[in-house]
Amino acid sequence: MFDALGSHVTAHPEAIGDGHPVMVYPGLGAGSRTTSQLRTFLTRAGFDVSDWGGGVNIGHAGDFDEWLDGFVRNVRALKDRHSGRKVSLIGWSLGGIFAREIAKRAPAAVRTVITLATPFASLGDATHAGTLFKLLNGEVSKITPALQAQLRTSPPVPTTSIYSKSDGIVSWRGCIEKRSAIAESVEVDASHLGMVNHPDVQRIVANRLAQPEGSWKPLGRAERIGRMERLQRAAG
Fold first, then answer.
1. Number of domains making up the chain
2. Which of 13, 72, 112, 190 could form a disulfide with 198 if both were Cys (CB 3.0 to 4.6 A apart)?
């Protein structure tokens, strides 16, 4: 369903990365092609970026926790291949659920988590997302209260949730992370399908990844990427 999106022109990145490993997880029904612009942008910005390696994201197979263990092992192995450097995880929509849960299971291997249009706080609602995310708990079964509580819990690592009130598919309220010393929510103006390729989103992601490990801070008002550009375009 995500392959038919209308993409924006990729933003021009600044070389701000430190070369640490980054893993990108696609949304439901999406594969590596749909995140290629974001991965290219981040690679050019100076990060070592990998696709999740799971092909098209059709949800989990079998027991969710057991299925996820394989991706936890992949992240730990990627950390080892990079001389012990922690891995940043980026997940779009359903991929954001996977990124958050992996970070909870392997916090020692994860540097930061960034989710794009991931309604982790409202998966049981009667929305399009409620239908999509039933794959987390079996194809026909409902998402249980216990699973909902699990998914709402914040990862124990720096976490950024990027959301849009003009999403069009999921509830933006369900994407709001409880603010803390290591968690934030950042609003953008993008559709659900177009978010992963939106220039402002790409710049925000790169900005968040570029923070020195152990020195994470929330995005300040003065750092809202693209804000001045939008004002200038409006004034012009």
1. 1
2. 190
